[in-house]
Amino acid sequence: MGEALGLFDAFYLMIDALNETSQESVIVEALLHLCSKHSNLRVLVTYCDIEVYVEKRLSSEHSFQSLSAKIRTEIKDKVTSEADGTFRWAKLCMDRLSTLRTGRDVRRALVDIPSTLNGFYAGILTRAPQQDRAMAREALAWLCFSLRPLHLGELAEAIILEGDEVNIDDDDRLTDPSAIIEICQDLAHVSDHHVTLAHDSIRTFLQSDWIRTSPASEYALDAAACHQRIMRKCLAYLRLEPFTTGPLDKLRHVKARFAAYPLLNYATNMWPIHSERFPLADEDEKLILDFFETKKLSHGGAFEAWVQFVLRSADLDVIRHTEPLYYAASFNMTSVLQLILRPEYKADVNKRGGRFSSPPLFVALWRDNVEAAMLLLRAGADPDSRDTSGQTSRRLATSRKHHEVVKLMKEMSPAGAKRAPTWNWERGAEDEWAMEDALSQARLRSYMDEDS
After folding, report:
1. Structure pTM?
2. ANK repeats: which residues (predicted)?
């Protein structure tokens, strides 16, 4: 942010609900430090007026309007005095009270209202019907740890997937995907067909020490365990029976698979990233290696089907000539790279792949996957091998200013190897590179940003 502040005469920073975070003092200290260093910084901190919010709901909602003035006053006094500045707690109170049928029930509820958000969330979850609890926990895990917002259909597919299934049909699926909101006891929210947690405090609650000793302990979540479970589910999905026969020869058939299998897009693109969010157990290594091994089947198996889903292409030649190592480098799957670069697997570290027949080292650098590039170099990748654009990995690393990679290239290259011209960091590219690089970069960008 310090760099950004230097670019503007005045920089406005608006922060809402600062009082609702446990890190308020840390944030305030950081803001004060920034303000002392940058006179152009303007900070606006807002707090929701809970009293105004409560009065608005009491006067506008039928469930409250039908109550006596005395009970409405009791509600206002209770909620505003005990909210302690936490708007989320006040909202949950009002939501709970709005469902009650009589003033007597409201009075009883006012006595029993939990004093904390944790207590509120625990009460919500423990009231869930027993038959919905496993599904609710699964949905909340995906909502907490998915790597992008999920479409309603994706989440509905994810929570019904069981590890031993070979296929999924409509009999396995929810009859109404929107039932997820009810299953999650309104802790989830749908907007524009995307599902998110209703509030970020829910994620904090589900990972807290508090929940582990509470009546809602069955819902407790661990980040590493959830990423592991999601990755395993994604791999299981990619190995469903329809995908085990390898890639298809018509693009329209590929598109039809995405339409028929709602989780396919997420599973295709996100399982490699989930694999980097937890330490791989022996079982995980076996799952991944077994998935990669399907490439050796005559039809390419689930691996080549996955490559086709990544590329959204029916170019079977590209698909069949691309090895697992290439995609591990492209997705920065460093744990997987360390696994398949073991000597016993005899991986060809320079085997080209992708639409542009690029070496794994080149695609790692193109994606700015520095750690993957370093692993490949230490495994013997050739930094001076050219792809069909004429680019070398050494040149790409230099132009991207990956200093540590360039340094390692110099250390790892054999004596007498041809060196690329010395880069002048202030001046830019050497003249002899300029035209070739411009042409190469233009050709690369035409497809590499869509390739993986």
Report:
1. 0.81
2. 356-388
